[in-house]
Amino acid sequence: MGQRVKISDVPFASVIAAVMGVISISVFAGTMYEALKIFTVYIFEDLFHYRLSWLETIQDTFLIIAITMALYVVFLLVFGVLVTGATRRHVYGGMSCIMGGQTSAIFLMVLTYICHIIWILIISACIIPILLYVMFIELCNQHVFNKKAEDIKFCMDLSNFGIFSNSSQKIVGGLTTTPLCSPTNLRRMCTRTEESGQLFIVAYIGAFCASLAMAHFMTILAANYTRMKLSKELTDYRNAVEMTS
Q1: How far, in Å, CA of 242 to CA of 192, rounded?
Q2: Bridge partners, 156 (sequence order)
Q3: Model's pTM, two decimal places?
Q4: What CA dihedral angle connects 164, 167, 168 and 169, to 10 degrees?
Q5: Which parts of the chain span the membrane according to its record (predicted)?
Q6: Which tens digits make up the pLDDT trace of 168-226?
């Protein structure tokens, strides 16, 4: 019987959502950080000699968001433990505690909804590098891959993508940029593009799963709010019975 009570005190829904959230956020953070590093350092800086400082800012921003979200998921798990089974009866036993628990649940629902919206925006943003990956890798398949070095007559000019002007050289951030024509560098670029593109896809999946975890937590918080509301009504009823008896 004691073992059953312990099992009933485990917030399985919160645990599942937390595990899914932490894993998906960790996958997103790791793959997105590495993909942007490959894109900015190994492709643009090493090959095109072009520094994308704003992408580095986005890289750090995504990392900060991921760490914050992971900590928030852990906090939601702790809250789920406090409002489950016998723990709820001990922590939220009094009327003021129940009211505080209801207020906390409402606040966390709103905050979780905002986090859910943020992940939807991140998912939308992840589509952009995936589309770029599809375009770049298609060019690589046509002009670079499965070809000998002497047969490669292709030059990668990023001005075709609206990144540079139509001039052959341009000083950007103090660095000279030129079209990429060397077969060796083209192969390096295509290999790095393939690596970063796959990581972007995994990051997209991670962001999608993180969004599902937030939606799961919203459902859990709504259920916890209902439980505490019922606890308040039962407490009011019990107090009324005691006063009349």
Answers
A1: 73
A2: 180
A3: 0.79
A4: -70
A5: 12-33, 62-84, 105-136, 201-223
A6: 444 444 444 567 788 888 888 889 999 999 999 999 999 999 999 999 999 988 888 77
